[in-house]
Design goal:
GO terms for molecular function: ATP binding; hydroxymethylpyrimidine kinase activity; phosphomethylpyrimidine kinase activity. The structure is a single chain. The protein has 9 helices and 9 strands. Helix 3 packs parallel to helix 4 (96-109), helix 4 packs parallel to helix 5 (134-141) and helix 6 (152-159) packs across helix 7. It has helices spanning 8-12, 31-41, 69-82, 96-109, 134-141, 152-159, 167-177, 224-237, 242-258, and strands spanning 17-25, 45-57, 60-66, 85-90, 113-116, 147-148, 185-187, 200-203, 208-211. Strand 1 (17-25), helix 2 (31-41) and strand 2 form a beta-alpha-beta unit. By secondary structure, it is α/β, with parallel strands linked by helices. The strands form 2 sheets. Strands 3-2-1-4-5-6 form a 6-stranded mixed beta sheet. It has one domain (15-262): Ribokinase (UDP-N-acetylmuramoyl-L-alanine:D-glutamate ligase). The protein is 36% helix and 18% strand.
């Protein structure tokens, strides 16, 4: 956590272990399922703590069931007390109590790296985090993160602003976002559908790095945020610095999207192709 130069733990581990703390997607395209696929495909060993069970498919989310706090705590203690967890990726947490518990356990066990994907809104538009829980997320968990990875609607929720519709509007968010307590924030531009590129902004304390990628014309983008944040956590666990880990993660998700139409899953927004050939071991 907040220790981007600390790579000795990762380098001393023969198997870089990455913990995903997130919700389950019964359709398999996002959440814990996407996280495990992405971590595995990029060279990490994935373990998991399930916070929420969703009834979900490529068409949307029909039900959300938060796991009882006591069982979330038992999962966290079981993993941290036995496995050498180098990096943690946090996704869907659902409510204030779960957020507070996860933050407390992160402080207790102090993994080397923490990537937080502030899952609030699904690709389908479904609200995945209760509105009153956002302030708890901002005060309890985001300050602990090495990297936060919101998309544009999530970033807009974090700063109570309108969702930008162009590159200039996206860049105008930087000042307000910097008022949040974070070490680094990857602002994902995938929702700017009129832009021929899918460019992200890595917002650091003193400067901004732009990461460029050609936009890929496909409807199969379910789980892209989960996949990207998990890949970045995996690359951090393997000893890469932040910028390198983010760039590798960006390359990985771009290829996973590019190969998404090779799959035929569901009737709506299908998943990306986590296990496309030829990219699994890049780092």
């Amino acid at each position: 956590m907040s220790n981007l130069s600390a790579t000795s733990t990762a380098q001393n581990s023969s198997t870089p272990i990455v913990l995903t703390i997130a919700g389950s997607d019964s359709g398999g395209g996002a959440g814990i399922q996407a996280d495990i696929k992405a971590i595995s495909a990029t060279g990490g060993y994935a373990c998991s703590v399930i916070t929420v069970i969703t009834a979900q498919n490529t068409l949307g989310v029909s039900a959300i069931f938060p796991i009882p706090l006591e069982h979330i705590e038992k999962q966290l203690d079981a993993v941290f007390s036995d496995l050498n967890v180098v990096a943690v990726k946090v996704g869907m947490l659902a409510d204030c109590d779960i957020i507070k518990l996860v933050a407390a356990k992160i402080r207790q066990y102090r993994p080397a790296f923490l990537v937080v994907d502030p899952v609030m809104i699904a690709t389908s538009g479904d609200l995945l985090l209760k509105a009153y829980s956002i302030s708890t997320l901002k005060s309890e968990l985001l300050p602990l993160a090495d990297l936060i990875t919101p998309n544009l609607p999530e970033a807009a929720e974090l700063i109570s602003s309108d969702v930008p519709t162009n590159k200039e509007g996206m860049e105008k968010m930087i000042g307000k976002l910097r008022k949040l307590k974070f070490n680094a924030l990857l602002l994902k531009g995938g929702h700017l559908i009129d832009d021929e590129n899918s460019n992200d902004l890595l917002i650091l304390p003193n400067h901004v790095e732009q990461l460029n990628a050609i936009r890929i014309n496909t409807l199969n983008t379910h789980g892209t945020g989960c996949t990207l944040s998990s890949a970045i956590a995996s690359y951090l666990a393997q000893g890469n610095d932040l910028l390198r880990a983010v760039q590798l993660g960006k390359d990985y998700i771009s290829q996973a999207i590019a190969h998404a139409d090779e799959l035929d899953v569901g009737q709506g927004h299908g998943p990306v192709n986590h296990f496309f050939v030829g990219h699994a071991n890049v780092r």
